[in-house]
Design brief:
With about 130 residues, this protein is mostly helical. About 75% of the residues lie in helices and about 0% in strands.
Length: about 130
């Protein structure tokens, strides 16, 4: 009876943690990697090495943080809190599955801005050419 508020609070915490931090790693892994492969095919000079390194940094830092928080919750919390945290974590993941696809328009826009420095310089934007001179 007294565990229900703790369960719901932990579920909210797990949901917020996954929605705010964990989804970023999932989007980087499941969406950005296919988009990098597409850019490699379209642009011969696309710096895939820099893009993969950035994905590795984002994914490793967010996964590491989520593992640490999860380990702390498991170590210090009761069973109700652990279950609530897990339910919230999984619920946030399931609700964000559509966001993790490379065909999502928002992911494409975010990819283009986040990985703009990996694209080859273009004649359309004069600033691109002046940076490499």
């Amino acid at each position: 009876m007294y565990n229900i508020p703790w369960f719901l609070g932990a579920a909210a915490f797990g949901f917020i943690l996954m929605a705010a931090i964990g989804i970023q790693a999932a989007v980087a892994l499941f969406s950005s990697i296919p988009l990098i492969r597409r850019c490699q095919q379209e642009y011969n000079e696309f710096n895939a090495r820099r893009a993969y390194r950035r994905i590795a940094q984002v994914a490793s830092l967010t996964i590491f943080f989520c593992i640490i928080v999860t380990a702390l919750v498991i170590h210090f919390a009761s069973t109700a809190i652990i279950c609530g945290y897990g339910v919230g974590f999984l619920l946030a993941f399931v609700l964000s599955v559509k966001r993790m696809t490379p065909n999502n328009d928002q992911n494409r826009k975010n990819f283009e801005t986040s990985y703009a420095d990996c694209y080859p310089p273009s004649a359309i934007n004069p600033d691109d050419l002046s940076d490499n001179s």
